[in-house]
Amino acid sequence: MHRFTLHVSAAAALLACGLASAKDLTVVNFGGANGNAQKAAFVQPYEKQTGNKIIGVEYNGEQAKVKAMVEAKRVTWDLVEVETGDLARGCEEGLYEKLDYSKIGPKTSFIPEAPQECGIGIFVWSTVLAYNSEKLKTAPTGWKDFWDVKKIPGKRGMRKTALYNLEFALMADGVLAKDVYKVLATKEGVDRAFKKLDEIKPFIQWWEAGAQPPQFLVAGDVVMSTVFNGRIDAARREGKALNVVWDGGIYDLDYWAIPKGSPNKDLALEYIAFSVAPAQQAAYAKNIAYGPVNQAAIKMLDAKTLADLPNAPANSKNAVLLDGAFWTDHGEELQQRFTAWAAK
Amino acid sequence: MTAPPATPVAAPVAAQRKLKQELRRAELRKKASALALIAPLALFLLVVFAVPIGALLQRAVASPEIPNALPQTVAALAHWDRKALPPDVAFTALAADLATARQGNAAGELARRLNNEISGYRSLVTKTARAMPVEGDAKAALVAIDARWGELPYWQAIAKNGSRTTPFFLLASLDLQQDNFGSIHKAPPEGAIYLDIFGRTLWIGALTTALALLIAFPLAYWASTLPARQANLVMICVLIPFWTSVLVRIAAWVVLLQQSGLVNTGLMALGVTSGPIALLFNRTGVTISMVHILLPFMILPLYSVMKAIPPTYQRAAISLGSHPFAAFWRVYVPQTYAGIAAGVLLVFITAIGYYITPALLGGPGDQMVSYYVAYFTNQAVNWGMACALGALLLAATLVLYAVYQRIVQTNANANIR
């Protein structure tokens, strides 16, 4: 009996010590290839260096979960990876903490899009055109070819959202990359995009999860697809003959954001600062073809790695930066119209 | 005296009353203990069922964002005719309200709600709130921040939504909308989708139910005629897929139905088709998988009813000269009505709530109401719209159930007559 109590108190003492020195941080990301790259570049080195533990959680970007937590004042997620539009909306609605950049680093050390009020960019990714070079004789060069079903017959994979597809349609219709959002901001521009989408509607195979388009391409279900560039990179590392057309790609950032009321806010800031530091950013880009947000990290990369990144000069030459403000304002209306269009 | 003796009559009356009282008391005691026994269940149902559904119905019409964030503006617009720009006091009130809203999260919620009404309102509110407070003439200042404050529709949107409840989400779920003066119109065709979706949901549900009945009836009939041992084996074969995760079964259908899948290669090997048929990402795939998943819900009630039907009735009819089919149709089938009704109801109601099967196996034209409920809950975070769609789906289910009850009752009455 005595021995038992002794064991229990010893265990309790050990536990208390453990709690005092090492801390847990719950970090939520989108998982997949990106999750694995984060694990190698951020999580493992951080745990090794600080002794703190990162509890990884995966989600699909559902802001409803964050909203429910914040409203109930029971926040169990300390750091969340969010997309541009959700960050802007969540910031306005008070779902996310405002960031203290004195604890992260000077804003000028990052690419201009990265530092935001409630979030900081983690990496640059792009939605691009990809094809299987084993199955296509004529390589497509851009969205005009994507729409040309006579030149390249077969199905095309597209994501089942209004986002990106309207922009791609306008570019296929001859709108210059730099003017896409100017045209899309008008009623005529939206009509024009939908009219262009009508042309290839019978040839579209829709996808929803990022893992689907590489599968479609490898299986030969589609001849071309819109796709997140990192997924193509992951497939290429497995030896698949998939190629990317960078021209007219739409690039965007994913951000770190701290849900309002997180009990580990300071620790979360520490982890943010760690993950956007040059060494970690460069390591991340070597694990997956998503671009660093830290200017110094870009300089640390070799030419071969750089060639696959969305924000390499050659690749971003004719690319479009996703207009988050436009989509926050018009997203609901355009998505509704898109849904109606797709279902008919 | 010829007065009737009081006691002999009064005694039985008193005794009777006492007896009645005791009986009533015993009854009450019984009722109380019965109530106590079901109390946990009643409480459980109340907590996990009635309360959430009530909250859902309430959220479908709730719209507290505008009166919460803009109390002074709503008051200033109360008597406005909505035909010309509002009086200057409204501008002053708006500037004051936005300056207060800026402190908390009210401005964000307000921006989200108003963006439901007019696209682009979100950034207008955020931008204006950031510029607060303003000095001097509020009207001039607001219009200087953004010219849209000088336009009528933006003010009408606020005035229209001054109350804490709104029919907006329910109307939108029925492809209707309210104009700026409160009368109801059809939504423009490029935005009208929900009636189609409700129609599609009911149609897919009906199709699935009909196919499941078509397959389940002979199977259940066959199983009910088998000796117990073999019948058990058949039932196990029915139940094993039933116990397997729905997601696993859907994934299996993806493997089977894809372009180079087992079904297509099989059909091509048999020479049925020359090229692969599109079985996936369309209605065919959804229907096949839903019928497969819901089949046990049809087989089990049918089987249990059929097991209880004495085979002698049908044999008697045949021995009396009836054609075997007539005997089956006019003697056997009517006795299975209860099982058919239970199975059909169970399958149909489950089917119209399906979400994951159409999402994974269907195209954009095969998504059912639940898909949009999930979309509005998780992605768009427009809970008003999600609740309105959910409430309408619930209403549709209840109406169908009432119709079903009606039919069953008339049938029962007809049988009695």
Automatic annotation (TrEMBL), chain A:
<dbReference type="Pfam" id="PF13416">
    <property type="entry name" value="SBP_bac_8"/>
</dbReference>
<keyword id="KW-0732">Signal</keyword>
<feature type="signal peptide">
    <location>
        <begin position="1"/>
        <end position="22"/>
    </location>
</feature>
<protein>
    <submittedName>
        <fullName>Spermidine/putrescine ABC transporter substrate-binding protein</fullName>
    </submittedName>
</protein>
<dbReference type="InterPro" id="IPR006059">
    <property type="entry name" value="SBP"/>
</dbReference>
UniProtKB/TrEMBL annotation, chain B:
<keyword id="KW-0472">Membrane</keyword>
<feature type="transmembrane region" description="Helical">
    <location>
        <begin position="288"/>
        <end position="306"/>
    </location>
</feature>
<feature type="transmembrane region" description="Helical">
    <location>
        <begin position="233"/>
        <end position="256"/>
    </location>
</feature>
<comment type="similarity">
    <text>Belongs to the binding-protein-dependent transport system permease family. CysTW subfamily.</text>
</comment>
<keyword id="KW-1003">Cell membrane</keyword>
<dbReference type="GO" id="GO:0055085">
    <property type="term" value="P:transmembrane transport"/>
</dbReference>
<keyword id="KW-1133">Transmembrane helix</keyword>
<dbReference type="InterPro" id="IPR035906">
    <property type="entry name" value="MetI-like_sf"/>
</dbReference>
<dbReference type="Pfam" id="PF00528">
    <property type="entry name" value="BPD_transp_1"/>
</dbReference>
<dbReference type="InterPro" id="IPR000515">
    <property type="entry name" value="MetI-like"/>
</dbReference>
<feature type="transmembrane region" description="Helical">
    <location>
        <begin position="34"/>
        <end position="57"/>
    </location>
</feature>
<feature type="transmembrane region" description="Helical">
    <location>
        <begin position="381"/>
        <end position="404"/>
    </location>
</feature>
<feature type="transmembrane region" description="Helical">
    <location>
        <begin position="202"/>
        <end position="221"/>
    </location>
</feature>
<feature type="transmembrane region" description="Helical">
    <location>
        <begin position="340"/>
        <end position="361"/>
    </location>
</feature>
<protein>
    <submittedName>
        <fullName>Polyamine ABC transporter substrate-binding protein</fullName>
    </submittedName>
</protein>
<keyword id="KW-0813">Transport</keyword>
<dbReference type="GO" id="GO:0005886">
    <property type="term" value="C:plasma membrane"/>
</dbReference>
<feature type="domain" description="ABC transmembrane type-1">
    <location>
        <begin position="198"/>
        <end position="404"/>
    </location>
</feature>
<keyword id="KW-0812">Transmembrane</keyword>
